[in-house]
Amino acid sequence: MQQTFTIANLLGLHVRPAKQIVEAAKKYPNTQVFVEKDGKKNSAKSLVNVLTLGAKHGDAVTLIVEGEQEAAALAEIGAILSANIDGHGAKA
Amino acid sequence: MKIRGIGASPGIALGRVLLMEEASPEGAAAASIEASAAPAELARLREAIGQAAAEVAALRDELKEKGREHESEIFDGHLMLLEDEELVDRAKQAIEEDLLSAESAVAVARDEIAAMLESLEDEYLRERAADIRDVCGRIIGKLSGRSNLLADSGNSEPVILVAGDLTPSHTATLDPQAVAGFVTLQGGRTSHSAIIARSIGIPAIVGMGGSLASLQGGEFVIVDGETGELHVEPDAATIEQYQARRASDLAKRQELQALMGAESVSLDGVHVELAANIGSPADAEAAKAKGAEGVGLFRTEFLYMGRDTLPSEDEQYEAYVSVAKTFGPNAPVVIRTMDIGGDKELPILDLPKEDNPFLGYRAIRISLDRHDLFKTQLRAVLRASAYGNLKVMFPMIATLAEWRAAKAVVEQCKDELRAEGVAFNEAIECGIMIEIPAAALLADRFASEVDFFSIGTNDLTQYTFAADRMNEKLTALNDPLQPAVLHLIERVIKAARAEGKWVGMCGEMAGQPHAVPLLLGLGLQEFSMSAGSVLQARALIRKLDQSRMAQLAAEALELESPEAIRAFVEERVPEIRL
């Protein structure tokens, strides 16, 4: 199953959010997790692969999950993709 | 010989050059193995990674214990990279399929991944290539039984380390007792080695490029981490001069460092805000580290210069958000709309050459003509205002009509964003720079309409005296302590305060020791200066009594010349000699 998320983190997928994604993806050993952007499909279980996606704030990134506990993995990792980890809450 | 690079960590260091050789230079010949040796190489690789991971974990824990959280986090990332499946798979593949030794296999994986990172648009991500090199260098060091860390130089005197690039591992483990400063060929202000150098206070210059090729090691050099200048084999007079500067720098820095995070408040309890003038998001980080409480002037021109296309709304938005984020949600960040034109050329706008660029078609005069450019910038600022206390400031305002026209475009952008359902700060403050005497003279009328003033003393002075500030023969006229300028400043501050609006200053004057007591006395509320002057200004203000300075300013306004005013301030305010 797959779903597209918009990167909310102001600094894009930098080391901190990327690390969280890898940590979350590794919790599902029997599930394949990929992040895809502009036709580039990378494993979400590798920090190198998540970083080299080069995803910036506002980019659309598709999360593709195949295997056990798909829905749980999709929800957990999707929440990180759409979280503003480095930023501040909007006040307007 | 003097060579210039990028000043990455301020301070002065003197010492002899220690050239650092890279553990395994890129492009070194790859070592092949027999197919039968592959399993043994794989086992060596696994063992080396395990040893490297143990070492990094120990380093991370040690840094964390010492309270060096930021650096500790960097090595937490390295730990993840060491076990990264992409990295490990590539290295394994190079052993099994290309029949390379484990060392060469790691080098191949390192070069491939570093190249991938370096091809990205984002500067921060590009610089992560240095982290991959660091991690791989550590694995290779374990494989070859060599330590990746700086070998004992055998020197008892502190050295200046010169390297292609310093990895975060090197930088974090540098002993300030042994290494007085460092210089690298690669890297920028945001590379990890630069950040760590600033946090441990080692003077550093980065991005020297090929200009260091002639160094053999052992030369006596001076590192000026503020200006980015490296003096090679300087003469005795230069050495003496820098030694003296270093000594007084150190003494002063210790005194000033104690004021980091202290309030900028006068003896009689008047609070002012000390902000920084910046030109880029990278400056913002440096400014905060130097004690600035906010940004009083963000010169946005840098976004437009040195390129063939205009910056998009998203690109500008990211730059503004990044500055807002650096200073946190409450600190004020004043964004001045672009001041292009005149002497700052922008090829894409195809502006005609002018005879008097400072009196020409520039800044708000272009913005009001080119709503496409102006709206792109204002929308970006408004969108970013959802993430911090951003304010909009218009440069070169001369008439009320210009101010009203500019404000109307802001309102138009707000309407659009509202209709699009995009978040922004509805109450965002809009103000003007007071840098043209016409605006200073009518300050009372502007004050009833704007949210704030910021006095740009550099231009205000040159326009008041009709004296080009680039002309070296006219420096005496370009003195903000000229009584005529002081009178204009007094008028502007009074006008703002009568309407209950805040008033700041973003010219060089705001950080000058002779001017600060007068400005405090006149009732200036925000002082925006180059970041390096902030702590000094704070130290001074904390020694002054605002009501006494008000009296001083009133008397100074009666004097006839900048010289008389300087002498008067020196006599009455001995505190300016810190």
From TrEMBL, chain A:
It is found in: Cytoplasm. It holds the Pfam family PTS-HPr. It comes from the Bacteria. GO terms for biological process: phosphoenolpyruvate-dependent sugar phosphotransferase system. Residues 1-91 form the HPr domain. InterPro entries: HPr, HPr-like, HPr-like_sf, PTS_HPr_Ser_P_site. Coiled coil: none annotated. CDD domains: PTS-HPr_like. GO terms for cellular component: cytoplasm. Keywords: Cytoplasm, Phosphotransferase system. The keyword Cytoplasm applies. NCBIfam families: PTS_HPr_family (TIGR01003). This is Phosphocarrier protein.
UniProtKB/TrEMBL annotation, chain B:
It is an enzyme of class 2 (transferase). Pfam families: PEP-utilisers_N (PF05524), PEP-utilizers (PF00391), PEP-utilizers_C (PF02896). Residues 42-112 form a coiled coil. The active site is at 192 (tele-phosphohistidine intermediate), 506 (proton donor). GO terms for cellular component: cytoplasm. It is found in: Cytoplasm. Its EC number is 2.7.3.9. GO terms for biological process: phosphoenolpyruvate-dependent sugar phosphotransferase system. Residues 255-545 form the PEP-utilising enzyme C-terminal domain. Its cofactor is Mg(2+). It catalyses: L-histidyl-[protein] + phosphoenolpyruvate = N(pros)-phospho-L-histidyl-[protein] + pyruvate. Belongs to the PEP-utilizing enzyme family. This is Phosphoenolpyruvate-protein phosphotransferase.
